[in-house]
Design brief:
Oligomer: homodimer
Number of helices of chain A: 22
Number of strands of chain A: 22
Distance between the termini of chain A: 34 Å
Strand content of chain A: 15-25%
Helix content of chain A: 25-40%
């Protein structure tokens, strides 16, 4: 599980994406009025796996899980925080990037999924800035190499100490023969608009760029002398806080631990249930709604409020499967419960969209659904009697590579025939990474179709109607259902997992690209290629030999 | 050379990109008024390499070189052709796609570069349609599998015979564990706007989709009964011809053979010279201008007209290096000649942009420059005394990963100091695959800068000015020149070729993506990854075992 080549530290047998500040080993979160400080202080002895030390604030997936948790808490638990200072608690070191020994010793699936998660975490910083007015400032006090500089690139403003030696760098290509794996190349040219030839120079200089040239080339925003640093940080943070649109209450909602029970063949959460069929290589994820909605005093309900609790559970389930169960090739989504209840929640969220907590919950659902989109597993949605695919949950129908909907009832089953129902949430709330909604992507360029579909909001669509409207792939009656679905899943899991990953990554994102989607498409795909190439990972490859004093031997042919 | 694993057929020692209709082995080009027919009739015994037969109109790079040649001639030699019928001369077979045995036996660099060239060829069909009103109709009379259907996808209109058995298919994932490599996935969802779940079904059904479902899912445009096919093809072609904007004369210009002499260390063309330094792994490409422009009677000058001849020579040089000299990691661009002459040509082309031949020449230069952009070699431009980097040729400065410009004169050299000069051609004529000009990409989002630069049109900029304006990376005086340039190139060629390929592919295309750029980025990068994965190319991989009757053994872990 997780990585066949390495052993998880402390006898753990899976990677756990749940944590909380009391358990952090690598980050310190402190709040001072409307300014938070997120200080990186990596404990080199607390690596996720055995076999390496996390020196110089280098990170592994465990470090990033804490960062992702802190970012979630900043949005939900600290709605008054307007500015987050991303700093290092270590002297003369900001962050040395992803730990090389960890990377060199990891199997391909772990490397790829490590990069995917760290990308999602950095995107979530930008999401907080863009959508919640929570602005980020990186304060670079020393070495900011590779992933360390990429961390800074995800912030809104990069300050660097002018001590004559501190530089920013992306030394991956010259040193390790791989690419910066966390969006660095894309952010340098697309976000910071560093000129491409400057970027070329920057990305091939091991020692990086310091001083005024770093400002001139737009690699950083501000260069500050050591004696003025604290004062300047304070002034910049204060200025940003003044300009922030954020106006949450001083107290947020506590994110209680996600409760779950692991079974040998699955996981039980409160509203989410995962059943794993190891022989078939399928995981079925069932999302349950309550009988009736509970929308009173949502701040008091806090993380137990159904939309929030369910999103957190689904998020954890996806991450668990992605990182701990590579052999599971297909995720089947189902729902179980009351369509009226799900509709009521969607309507409540829509009616209170300017409530800070509702705002955060919807953006969180957006991020969870985006995580689903970039999950390299076949995604199937089965819409059966007793289900509640309404609005927000119907996004899982549109996120799926295919969906099957049962016509009428199942023999010997009294539950009502399956319905599919659109709400306003399907028309703009949950945008994919490339900027379109899932329905816009599904009906690319056909705006008439979208106008027609909006008229269907609130109508319970049976399987025939849903198929005619193009909302599901196939409708089947109960005579064909079991057989068709079984044959499809069996066939699917017989194909090459790599072929499917490539296929799905290309078919899911029709239409435009954004900086975010470019990171997952262009950059990630090239990095995955390089992560397979002998020049990086072979016996004589640079990633393998780094730190041994031996020089890598390259096959010099250009592909 | 070309491919270490295979031997080129007929004792050839390099892949030749030059051909002409009298030498075609696989295509028949015929013209009837304003409708041309390009009939595929692959000679199975005339493969580019030894060791496979090109059965069922399957193709290898040699087949595609002829297609690319025919498409060029249709634009230059047949300016009156408004519609091109893409057909098969074989019974019940349209095209079976890329030859699997060729692919299975090819080394990685050949596979990748084969796909790159076939992509460029299909893009050139779409370019002819969009920019020259030369519309394409695919007439599918039988098997159109994989690359065969992808060929049809590059046309404007797909007709298919309704004979009860003919289908279109993309069976790569289920059969071969690779992706359709010639834009198929992108064109299915982005161009034809096939719904993503339908596309998922389509791309996983080996036998493909036929009959009315193919129309309903938008995979084809027209389904025609066998008895009506010829009549319907004629009517559709006639209708398209009527609507075409193309209005070229009945006679075009003959594309004479590109004259070149191969030396052990280079190639001499008329205006282009390639010098290969095998030890340094560098090829220097020098483009020479005449002393004075010759712009009288350009149709009579035909393919000897300097802008056209130079573009063809540069195109051939790039293709030669790309496909025959993998070990060359760096392309250095230089020019030699008269800035006034190059300026005069640019001004002439600009003043006569509505002349059909000028129009074609400029679009051809655009395509050649795009070929440079996607060439996975480090691109460097050196701007030295005696050079003529003006307008069109200055695009090579902006296409380069880096450029160096010499300040003043070289000791002992009387040639005038280097100048760089912009013309109107730099502001919209030569768009990159992602839709922006190279200057727009260079100064992404800074429209003021572009306004300022337009004011510089016609000014001879010295090295200091060019550097200050951001048009070159570095200006150096003659004391530093040799050493700096040498150190840069030596350092560059010491890096991992794969790392550089990924780096350059990510830094060169800041900004938006188009369907075309998505094909080269998202799709190609994923395909390259898959082309490295054991599930496709390993001993037990699907591509290796195809046709042996053995089933592939997959590592079932999802990455």
């Amino acid at each position: 599980m997780a990585d066949d080549k390495r052993k998880l530290a402390n006898g753990k047998d899976f990677i756990d994406f749940q944590t909380d500040p009391s358990r952090y080993r690598h980050w310190k979160l402190s709040i001072d009025g409307d300014v938070a400080t997120l200080a990186m202080d990596v404990d080199e002895n607390a690596g996720l796996y055995e076999g390496y030390l996390l020196k110089l604030n280098s990170y592994d997936l465990g470090v990033d899980i804490e960062l992702a948790d802190a970012l979630m808490r900043l949005r939900f638990e600290h709605p008054n925080v307007k500015v987050v200072l991303l700093r290092s608690a270590k002297d003369r070191v900001f962050c040395a990037g992803a730990n090389i020994r960890m990377l060199a010793g990891s199997e391909h699936p772990h490397k790829v999924n490590f990069c995917k998660f760290t990308n999602e975490t950095r995107n979530s910083m930008e999401d907080a800035s863009e959508n919640s007015g929570q602005r980020f400032i990186a304060v670079i006090n020393g070495t900011a190499a590779g992933g360390g500089y990429e961390l800074a690139l995800a912030t809104d403003y990069i300050m660097m100490i002018d001590d004559g030696s501190t530089a920013v760098s992306l030394p991956e290509v010259p040193l390790l023969a791989v690419l910066p794996g966390t969006g660095g190349l894309t952010r340098v040219v697309d976000k910071r608009r560093v000129r491409r030839d400057h970027a070329d120079v920057f990305c091939t200089i091991e020692e990086g760029i310091k001083g005024r040239r770093a400002v001139q080339w737009r690699l950083i925003d501000d260069l500050v002398s050591p004696s003025k640093l604290e004062e300047q940080v304070k002034a910049t943070a204060g200025d940003m806080a003044t300009k922030s649109s954020r106006k949450g209450p001083s107290e947020g909602v506590k994110l209680l631990p996600v409760e779950r029970t692991f079974r040998p063949d699955g996981i039980d959460y409160g509203y989410v249930k995962v059943d794993i069929d190891a022989a078939q290589r399928v995981a079925t994820i069932v999302i349950r709604s309550p009988e009736a909605p509970s929308t009173a005093d949502i701040e008091k309900q806090g993380s137990r409020f159904w939309p929030l609790q369910t999103a957190r559970e689904l998020d954890d389930a996806i991450l668990h499967l992605r990182n701990n169960a590579y052999e599971i090739g297909t995720l089947v989504f189902k729902t179980d419960g009351s369509p009226a209840c799900v509709r009521a929640y969607d309507e409540f969220l829509d009616a209170h969209s300017d409530h800070w907590l509702v705002h955060e919950i919807r953006h969180y659902w957006k991020r969870v659904l985006k995580r689903v989109d970039v999950t390299s597993r076949t995604l199937v949605t089965l819409i059966e009697p007793g289900s509640c695919f309404v609005g927000t949950l119907a996004e899982l129908v549109f996120a799926a590579d295919r969906s099957y909907m049962l016509l009428g009832q199942m023999q010997g089953d009294n539950r009502p025939a399956a319905k599919l129902e659109l709400t306003r949430a399907n028309f703009g709330v949950y945008r994919m990474s490339h900027g379109l909604t899932r329905l816009q992507t599904r009906f690319l360029g056909d705006s008439d179709k979208l106008v027609d579909l909006e008229k269907e909001i609130g109508r319970e669509l049976d399987a025939n109607e849903a198929e005619t409207l193009g909302l599901v792939t196939f409708s089947l009656d109960d005579i064909d259902w079991d057989n068709e679905v079984r044959v499809f899943i069996e066939e699917r899991t017989s194909f090459s997992p790599d072929g499917l990953t490539g296929l799905e990554a290309n078919l899911r994102f029709a239409g435009p690209e954004t900086m975010e989607s470019k990171i997952f498409a262009r950059l990630t795909a090239w990095q995955n290629w390089i992560f397979q190439r002998p020049n990086a990972v072979g016996e004589q490859g640079a990633l393998r030999l780094y730190g041994t004093g031996q020089r890598p031997a390259y096959d010099m042919r250009r592909v």
